[in-house]
Write a structure and sequence with these properties.
289 residues; 2 domains; 9 strands; five-stranded antiparallel sheet; two-stranded antiparallel ribbon; Phosphorylase Kinase, domain 1; protein serine/threonine kinase activity; alpha+beta; Transferase(Phosphotransferase), domain 1
């Protein structure tokens, strides 16, 4: 792959280290991906460890190839001082964008819609954890959506591989609202169950359109204290099932060992999705809607 293989259409967004463009794929590879998200890393102002973060993302994504629920990495190349990664393009923005649309229109998700998206997020996380990949920055902005109804986990730039011998990580990275209590370095480290905490935060936000710990925007200490004691407002009392509320509380257990693992979370979420899809099918059969 090289720069002339792609025609940039527009800028999709910018991150701390990179820009992302929508581009036409003119290579003979991956003909099913006519449009790609081309991620450009400007290396001239970056430290070596930041450049290596980009290489890590490629390696991680290529370990989960052709996934239904993880963004596919098509390839990478370097040109002058810039490094490019060609990624599968999700053509319906991301979950955070969808949350903002709901807020602006004064709408909440139906429980059926929640389980429809959430069981896919769980499936993607299960695949990552099966490959010993800890995401470390799971949040709505990193859940990408397609027009065919797929939800895909992306942006693995903060991920790392846990070897079979690795027990705990201690690096302070991620987005504050979704950090588990043990992510505070004083607590001695974290593991895969920290991703499950973030999963619980996402599920809560799907119900309320706000982070469970939103509100402490200027005071990092106050935010961490709320997270440390797991204090958050209840979800709407009569709108969602007790199973959904139990799932949130299980994922947001202060003690990591009390949270489900990714396989258990996926199994439970898939069953709830099947239940609501079955109810919908019965309703359509009975009322023709």
């Amino acid at each position: 792959m090289k720069a002339c293989d792609f025609k940039i259409i527009k800028n999709l967004g910018e991150g701390t280290f990179s820009e992302v463009y929508l581009a036409e794929n003119h290579t003979s590879q991956y003909p099913e991906h006519k449009l790609v998200a081309l991620k450009r890393l400007k290396t001239d102002n970056l430290r070596e460890e930041e450049i290596m973060q980009c290489f890590d993302e490629i390696y991680l994504l290529q370990r989960v190839k052709n996934s239904e629920n993880v963004i596919d990495c098509l390839g990478a190349f370097r040109e002058s001082n810039d490094f490019f990664i060609a990624l599968e393009f999700a053509d319906n923005k991301d979950l955070e964008y969808l949350f903002n649309e709901k807020r602006q229109n004064g709408l909440l998700f139906s429980e059926r819609s929640i389980w429809f998206y959430f069981h896919q997020i769980c499936a993607g996380l299960k695949e990552l954890h099966e490959q010993r990949i800890l995401h470390r920055d799971l949040k709505p902005a990193n859940i990408f959506l397609t027009r065919t109804g797929k939800a895909k986990i992306g942006d693995l730039g903060l991920s790392r591989i846990f070897s079979l011998k690795t027990q705990l990580a201690k690096t302070e990275v991620g987005t504050d609202y979704y950090l588990a209590p043990e992510r505070n370095i004083c607590f001695g480290g974290y593991n895969f169950k920290s991703d499950i905490w973030a999963l619980g935060c996402i599920l809560y936000e799907m119900c309320t359109l706000r982070s469970p710990f939103n509100g402490e925007q200027r005071n990092a200490y106050a935010l961490f204290k709320r997270i440390e004691i797991c204090h958050y407002p209840p979800v709407p009392a009569n709108y969602y099932s007790r199973q959904l509320k139990f799932f949130i509380s299980s994922c947001l257990s202060i003690r990591p060992e009390n949270r489900p693992n990714a396989e258990q979370a996926h199994s439970a979420a898939r069953k709830m999705n099947q239940k609501f899809e079955s109810l919908r099918a019965k309703f359509k059969k009975q009322f023709g809607k």
